[in-house]
Specification:
Strand content: 15-25%
Structural class: alpha/beta
CATH architecture of the largest domain: 3-Layer(aba) Sandwich
Number of strands: 9
CATH topology of the largest domain: Rossmann fold
Order of helices and strands: EHEHHHEHEHHEHHEEHEE
Number of helices: 10
Helix content: 40-55%
CATH superfamily of the largest domain: P-loop containing nucleotide triphosphate hydrolases
Radius of gyration: 20 Å
CATH class of the largest domain: Alpha Beta
Largest sheet: 5 strands, parallel
Strand order of the largest sheet: 2-3-1-4-5
Number of domains: 2
Length: about 280
């Protein structure tokens, strides 16, 4: 079945739409709470880091902190694993950007007039209009900064989505019914090629998460990309700059373990005394 990602303005009713679609189609509802719970499986420290970074994303100067990179890698890997299972409504978490280009993923943005959002937050949180306005504006700004920091994209850019829906113009039930029909139509685009692309992305994210969450590695640059060799044989390429030759072998071993039977190609450079060396493993 197709997969739905929902990006939303705070207080727009996006969560209500997500729940409604999940109920209509028997989809799994994947939100912040679910993802944070999943991070606990990687260790108590990652649940704590997830809460920390969810509450306050780091600035540009902090984006290379190993804990933040590990948090992002785990978050992305978990989202892709849910997408692999199909029949999922993925709320926020950058899912619309992470799953871009997958033909059977429907990526939508939910918005609403500001005053309507303020009123909804007042009712939901039991606060006055001034506080509700502050909460709405802060949440919008935090989400926008997070997406730009991680994906380099504008969260509010309508061209980034398949559909932009306004709960000020349509009722939530109407929107949910519309999305149900759109997902049933989108399911016809689930080709072997599309499934392979998603499998490759999930594999690369799994390998990257395994490396990025290992605090003993000193890696200044890390990237793991899918490498396709036909529809049946595929793997990943691990690229990075490390500061210890010993780490190269350890990273290679960890990457191969995380990739299982899929092939791994490592293109790792090590930096010593201000100079770069290179070792490759295939």
């Amino acid at each position: 079945m197709a997969v739905l990602t929902i990006s939303r303005e705070f207080g727009s009713g996006g969560r209500d739409i997500g729940h409604a679609v999940a109920d209509l189609l028997g989809y799994e509802y994947v939100d912040r709470k679910r993802i944070l719970g999943d991070m606990l499986k990687a260790g108590k420290q990652w649940e704590e880091q997830a809460v920390r970074f969810d509450e306050a994303y780091p600035g540009i100067s902090e984006r290379y902190d190993w804990a933040f990179r590990g948090f992002v890698a785990l978050n992305q890997s978990n989202i892709l694993e849910y997408a692999l299972r199909d029949k999922a409504v993925i709320m926020g978490r950058g899912g619309s950007f992470l799953l871009r280009g997958i033909s059977y993923v429907l990526r939508v943005r939910v918005k609403a007039p500001l005053e309507q959002r303020i009123k909804k937050v007042m009712e939901r949180e039991g606060v006055n209009s001034e506080t509700a306005r502050w909460l709405v504006e802060k949440a919008d700004d935090d989400m926008k900064r997070a997406v730009y920091l991680i994906y380099g994209k504008d969260l509010a850019d309508s061209s980034e989505y398949d559909m932009v829906l306004d709960t000020g113009a349509q009722a939530i039930g109407q929107i949910a019914a519309r999305l149900k029909d759109a997902l049933l139509a989108r399911d016809k685009l689930k080709t072997d090629r599309a499934k392979t692309i998603l499998q490759l992305r999930a594999l690369a994210a799994r390998v990257k998460a395994a490396i990025a969450t290992e605090p003993t590695f000193f890696i200044s640059v890390l990237d793991v990309e899918p490498k396709e060799e036909g529809l049946l044989q595929y793997g990943v390429v691990v690229r990075g700059i490390v500061h210890s030759q010993d780490d190269i072998k350890r990273i290679e071993e960890l990457a191969r373990s995380a990739a299982g039977t899929s092939p791994v190609e490592c293109q790792l450079h090590y930096r010593w005394h201000g100079r770069l060396g290179r070792q490759e493993f295939k």
